[in-house]
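thought: user wants a sequence for this fold. calling inverse folding tool.
action: design(structure=
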């Protein structure tokens, strides 16, 4: 029997693939989002060629901290290698990954066409099935999300295994389908869900026309598949050093009884059927509900879908419509792997990605139904209209994946009662604030963290409709603490002490949290307690040697202490964990410049400029190096070019002020410095230099605000000591200002200095009582604050 995939109508596959490619165009410009930032960007086994063997010899998430990695039983070497190839072929750009995923999906669509022709002996039906499969919106997450590259990859290989299996049947079932076994093993190496190939192959056998073959050759048919599965288990057992091959690892403990878990099985199956039937309810996060309400609409809908499928299968069985029956059975057969152990599915068990192979059955069933119940022109029109609807939904949904901010904003609308989604959005907004400095992002981050904590508190008080884990509490508190810290940087109250207490509380509740210890260190650094900050940051690194932010902040601290060479080593470690991050490159360049390694710093500046051609930071770094070399005109040109790209580049304003000051242009230097102070509220250098110029032009009154801010941020030695001496000899007599200086030193842990300022403040109060009796109420209030602070210090 000749293979039906060849024939004069094979050309119709070309417009099908073109339509599918067009529908996914919005996804091609997507950035790295969500797990991509860990699994790809911060995974050294992906980004460093020398570590490629680790992709085969280790579990997929082994690069994470040991506690997290130990809970995840994923070994997908073929998918990991595909990610590594995408990274190196595309130079780290997301487009390369998107093209690889789309190519795999288009190839899978072509195989669906060939499979459907084998099953139906009808090219138009096969074309309809392939069109619906390729455009089905439920695939968007799998095709557009870089981290989900395993789905189109394992889907393609699984479909090739099924196609090879059917081809073997068509050739008369001679020998065994070894090619199918080979494709099956490759599919398993891409994703373990490919084990569904075995039940899918058995289902497809139902539609073979030759009745006499139904009861023979069962062992010959199954042998290659079973051997592939056994080999896969053996390889996993070696990787995980366990006879259970890592399948005993549980990603999520739902904390519910057997009855609720049984309901969850029905939710996964029925929810998947609903998404195949009505793919408008697409979402990355569908949170598990610990206790379903008595008449939960989603659960009732899932039960109705399951009942409808059972009735359909019974009717098709009774009508002996074997091809349609096989198509109907393909849907639940493809879902068997996630149904076996729902505890391994994570916090969001009803997932679009689990349906990649199930779409084969639903698409084929719809194409067969159109052929059976409608005249040919009407059938063609109906399938084209349905495909057009699918394509439009795919187009819009693919656009939701263009960046993390969009993805989480949409997800919060879809899952507003998920603490995980709320603190995840808070994390995204915090990162946006770090990059852009927009206070609206900071306020949004704090709001989302607060919403997450409110939901977690409700869950703690017994609201069983909210699923909450200890990690949710941990992360939501961290997001709130970081938001408060950034608020303290720009808020004139500068209450870093309260933020430090929050991080200390989180660290006490989660003693193995590297994030909490690092936050505690950053807050201590903001308070000027540099020894304490360094101890905390080094403790964070000891807890998690792969925690990139701990190395970055340690580098910032060391640079602040003047230890430029040690800071450069910390930033190099940051870049090893987070290759080519713009901010990390710039910090390394500045550290190298400060350490006197101008040539290396220039290499870093050029590397950053090549990687981020539209960024201002590399130009500002080159300007700094030019100024160090004495080329002031070139430096000023580079700073101006940087500010033309980004007028809010605080570092460019700061360095430009130095060049202008060197040229004697004090007015221009002061303007640049004041702008730098606004943009770099934590820069001692900016506030110190601004206060020095203001002292010349406006006296102590005009410089006081910047003097106080610089005093808060001062290093322990060098310019910090000069500033202390300057303020001590400045003849300050206002008690509130003296009290403010005492409070600053108290927060920094400098008790003796704080007490000396308090003595001067108390003397100023006494003098004010004598010279300005009318100010007595205000002075008495200041005295009470002095007494309170003195009591705390003593």
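)
observation: tool returned 794 residues.
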């Amino acid at each position: 029997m000749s293979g039906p995939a060849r024939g004069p109508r094979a050309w119709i596959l070309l417009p099908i693939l073109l339509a599918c490619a067009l529908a996914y165009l919005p996804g091609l410009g997507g950035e790295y989002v969500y797990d991509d930032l860990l699994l790809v960007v911060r995974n050294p086994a992906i980004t460093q060629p020398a570590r490629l063997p680790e992709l085969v010899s280790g579990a997929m998430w082994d690069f994470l901290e040991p506690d997290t990695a130990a809970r995840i039983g994923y070994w997908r070497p073929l998918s990991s290698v595909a990610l590594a190839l995408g990274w190196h072929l595309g130079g780290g750009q997301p487009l390369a990954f998107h093209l690889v995923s789309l190519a795999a999906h288009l190839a899978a669509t072509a195989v669906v066409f060939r499979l459907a022709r084998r099953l139906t002996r009808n090219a138009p039906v096969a074309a309809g099935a392939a069109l619906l499969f390729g455009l089905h919106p439920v695939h968007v997450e799998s095709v557009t999300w870089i981290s989900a590259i395993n789905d189109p990859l394992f889907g393609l290989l699984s479909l090739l295994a099924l196609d090879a299996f059917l081809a073997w049947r068509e050739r008369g079932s001679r020998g065994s389908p070894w090619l199918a076994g080979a494709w099956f093993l490759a599919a398993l190496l891409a994703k373990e869900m490919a084990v569904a190939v075995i039940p899918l192959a058995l289902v497809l056998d139902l539609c073979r026309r030759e009745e006499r073959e139904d009861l023979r050759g069962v062992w010959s048919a199954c042998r290659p598949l079973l051997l592939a599965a056994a080999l896969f288990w053996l390889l996993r057992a070696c990787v995980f050093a366990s006879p259970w091959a890592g399948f005993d690892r549980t990603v999520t403990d739902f904390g519910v009884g057997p009855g609720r878990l049984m309901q969850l099985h029905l939710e996964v199956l029925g929810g998947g059927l609903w998404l195949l039937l009505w793919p408008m309810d697409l979402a990355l996060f569908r949170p598990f509900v610990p206790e379903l309400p008595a008449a939960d609409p989603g659960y009732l809908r899932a039960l109705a879908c399951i009942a409808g499928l059972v009735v359909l299968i019974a009717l098709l069985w009774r009508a002996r419509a074997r091809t349609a029956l096989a198509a109907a059975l393909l849907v639940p057969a493809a879902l068997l792997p996630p149904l076996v152990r729902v505890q391994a599915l994570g916090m969001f068990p009803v997932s679009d990605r689990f349906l990649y192979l199930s779409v084969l059955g639903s698409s084929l069933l719809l194409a067969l139904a159109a052929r059976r119940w409608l005249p040919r022109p009407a059938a063609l029109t109906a399938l084209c209209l349905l495909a057009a609807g699918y394509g439009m939904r795919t187009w819009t949904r693919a656009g939701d994946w263009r960046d993390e901010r969009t993805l989480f904003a949409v997800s919060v609308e879809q899952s507003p009662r998920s603490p995980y989604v709320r603190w995840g959005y808070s994390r995204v907004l915090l990162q946006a604030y770090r990059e852009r400095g927009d206070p609206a992002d900071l306020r949004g981050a704090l709001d989302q963290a607060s919403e997450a904590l409110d939901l977690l508190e409700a869950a703690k008080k017994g609201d069983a409709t909210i699923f909450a884990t200890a990690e949710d509490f941990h992360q939501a508190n961290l997001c709130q603490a970081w938001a408060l810290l950034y608020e303290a940087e720009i808020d004139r109250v500068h209450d870093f002490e309260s933020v430090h207490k929050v991080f200390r509380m989180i660290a006490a509740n989660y003693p193995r949290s590297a994030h909490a210890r690092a936050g505690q260190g950053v807050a201590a650094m903001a308070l000027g307690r540099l020894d304490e900050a360094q101890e905390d940051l080094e403790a964070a690194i000891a807890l998690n040697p792969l925690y990139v932010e701990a190395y970055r902040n340690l580098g910032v601290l060391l640079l602040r202490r003047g230890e430029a060479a040690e800071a450069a080593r910390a930033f190099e470690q940051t870049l090893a964990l987070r290759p080519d991050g713009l901010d990390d490159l710039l910090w390394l360049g500045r550290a190298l410049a400060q350490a006197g390694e101008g040539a290396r710093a220039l290499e870093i500046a050029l590397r950053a400029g090549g990687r981020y051609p539209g960024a201002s930071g590399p130009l500002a770094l080159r300007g700094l190096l030019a100024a160090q070399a004495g080329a002031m005109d070139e430096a000023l040109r580079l700073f101006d070019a940087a500010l033309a790209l980004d007028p809010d580049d605080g570092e460019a304003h700061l360095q430009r002020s130095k060049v202008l000051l060197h040229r004697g242009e004090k007015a221009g230097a002061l303007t640049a410095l004041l702008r730098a102070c606004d943009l770099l509220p934590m820069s001692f250098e900016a506030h110190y230099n601004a206060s020095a110029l203001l002292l010349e032009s406006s006296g102590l009154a005009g410089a006081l605000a910047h003097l106080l801010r610089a005093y808060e941020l001062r290093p322990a030695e060098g310019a910090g000591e000069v500033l202390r001496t300057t303020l001590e000899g400045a003849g300050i007599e206002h008690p509130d200002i003296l009290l403010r200086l005492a409070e600053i030193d108290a927060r920094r842990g400098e008790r003796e200095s704080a007490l000396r300022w308090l003595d001067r403040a108390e003397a100023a109060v006494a003098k004010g009582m004598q010279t300005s009796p009318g100010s007595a109420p205000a002075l008495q209030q200041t005295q009470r604050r002095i007494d309170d602070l003195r009591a705390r210090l003593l």
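thought: summarizing for user.
answer: Here is the designed sequence. The first helix runs from residue 13 to 23.
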